[in-house]
Amino acid sequence: MSDVSIGTGKVVVNRAMSLDGFIAGPGHAMDWIFEYLTADTFPEVMAATGAMLVGRGTYEVAKRMADEDTAYDGGGQFVLTHEPPDEPDPTVTFLTCDIEEAVATARSAAGGKNLEILGADVAAQCLQRGLVDEILVYVLPVLLGDGVRFSPSSLGRIDLEPFSNTQSGAVTMLRFHVRK
Ligand SMILES: NC(=O)c1ccc[n+]([C@@H]2O[C@H](COP(=O)([O-])OP(=O)(O)OC[C@H]3O[C@@H](n4cnc5c(N)ncnc54)[C@H](OP(=O)(O)O)[C@@H]3O)[C@@H](O)[C@H]2O)c1
Predict the structure, then answer these.
(1) At 116, which CATH number?
(2) Is 61 in a helix, a strand, or coil?
(3) Which of 25, 64, 67, 77 is the most exposed place for a label (fewest CB within 10 A)?
């Protein structure tokens, strides 16, 4: 049974990762991801997603990539920042609040579907605070050598329980429950 039909509304950290553990290359490069992964690679993930919470860092990288074909409709997008831009962006809701409140706000907008957490810093905070139900990783067949790591060393140990392993073309999707 899919997540959509049971409407569990989980909080899911969702990442594409190189085999050597980077979620962005040097200079926040993301082009390598879209060589392998599109919204069609695992359509069930997008269908199960009702809202997304990202950090300002991810928002700025995505804005720079706006011309590339990265279309992904994961529902309403919430951006956590200490300083919302003067110029509003009608495509997102800027939040300035505690991480727990941000997750609650975005989760209630997901309408019973999953809330996806993207970005490095915000995801690490959510994991640190025990707010994450699941980690979903797309492992891509590339070694980047350098860049943004999956998680900062400050995060420490978090135990996971694997429950799904699916291949689509060159991409392997691994899913884990976060042990609480
Ligand atoms: N591989 C993938 O699937 C994937 C997906 C998404 C992103 N990425 C990559 O991840 C990197 C971005 O990560 P990042 O480390 O910059 O993290 P981020 O989590 O996207 O953004 C961090 C920013 O969010 C804001 N923020 C975080 N916590 C906050 C809080 N409690 N209250 C208010 N604002 C808060 C701060 O912005 P202010 O300074 O404005 O306050 C902070 O600088 C990029 O390289 C991006 O390409 C990879």
Answers:
(1) 3.40.430.10
(2) helix
(3) 67
37 closest CA partner among 70, 85, 86: 70
DSSP state of 145: S
What is the number of the ligand 1 atom nearest to the C-alpha of 61? 47
List the chain pLDDT tens, one digit each, 180 residues: 344 434 469 999 999 999 999 999 999 999 999 999 988 899 999 999 999 999 999 999 988 887 665 667 889 999 999 999 998 899 999 999 999 999 999 999 999 999 999 989 999 999 999 999 999 999 999 999 999 999 998 998 999 999 999 999 999 999 999 998
* Atom of ligand 1 at shortest range from CA of 30: 47
Nearest CA to ligand 1 atom 46: 58
Kindly report the pTM of this predicted structure: 0.93
Q: Which atom of ligand 1 is closest in space to residue 97's alpha carbon?
A: 32
Q: How far is the CA of 59 from the centre of ligand 1 (A)?
A: 7
